[in-house]
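My current task is to audit a protein record that another person submitted. Alongside the sequence sits a line of tokens, each denoting a local backbone shape. Where you disagree with what is written, explain briefly why. This is what I was given:
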Amino acid sequence: MDALLLQILNGLDKGSAYALIALGLTLIFGTLGVVNFAHGALFMIGAFCAVTLQKILSLSSTTLDPTKTDFLGNPAKIETPYVESWFGPEIGAALIDWSVPLGILFAIPIMISIGFIMERGLIKHFYKRPHADQILVTFGLAIVLQEVIKHFYGANPIPTPAPDAFRGSFDFGSMLGFDPNVIIYPYWRLVYFFFSVLIIGGVFAFLQFTTFGMVVRAGMADRETVGLLGINIDKRFTIMFGIAAAVAGLAGVMYTPINSPNYHMGMDFLVLSFVVVVVGGMGSLPGAVLAGFMLGILESFASMNQIKAIFPGIDQIIIYLVAILILLTRPRGLMGRKGVMED
């Protein structure tokens, strides 16, 4: 039982990332009908928003301390972050320590702006083009963004630690009555799971209980009829593209302590997230979320040594095997609408 619980927990953080990225992908496909292969790049940009904020907060000035000397006998150089000079040592140190959560506030306007620019500058010209054209142009855009990040930040991963309060691990097993130190789980992975649930719940509440969301859902079901009512549905869909970009970016921001940001992390998650969307059902928001968590947990179980001893390498292909099975037996996905992807 303890091994089962541990694998479920291990699958939650990756499943949370899959679900958040797939949710944004499904929002874009459901509203605009666009297959956006640049969505993984938005996840990557969000991660580098956190990296950028940490670098900004860590900018420092150099002063000489005559009371201390280095090994050559010269006055020692003291690096003092500007935020500590402006706000005091305690507040400045706290701002640097909490740079990742603060990255949420930093990333939201940036990601929404990038989403608007992508949609208005490029995506809108491919609404009525074949899906193959959409895939090619957005995949090319993803490569361009990836190379831009590589140019400015380098090819090596950049460690971005979680706040001190959330470093270390939580003895999850002892809380459930197991022996101590049997089920140990990092605090930040729990934070990421609850954060993803909050974002997913917020998106669903926005679509379900606000007038704007109701109009968007109506537009997803029958775009022409909503347009005939005098509603500028295109403008609302552009806003939804910005929201989808923000969701992907926030997923990247909070994932940085789990996986150090690198320029190809967007591609790493993109393909898997598209598989999640296909399994859940193209255009189905609940299906994307359900499939994200389900496949994340399934991948975690497949990585167990006992399983890999029987099926070597199964952890690398299990998600694709599930996708093949779903496409063969139920092409519209687990929760997709009838007729979608079944022609």
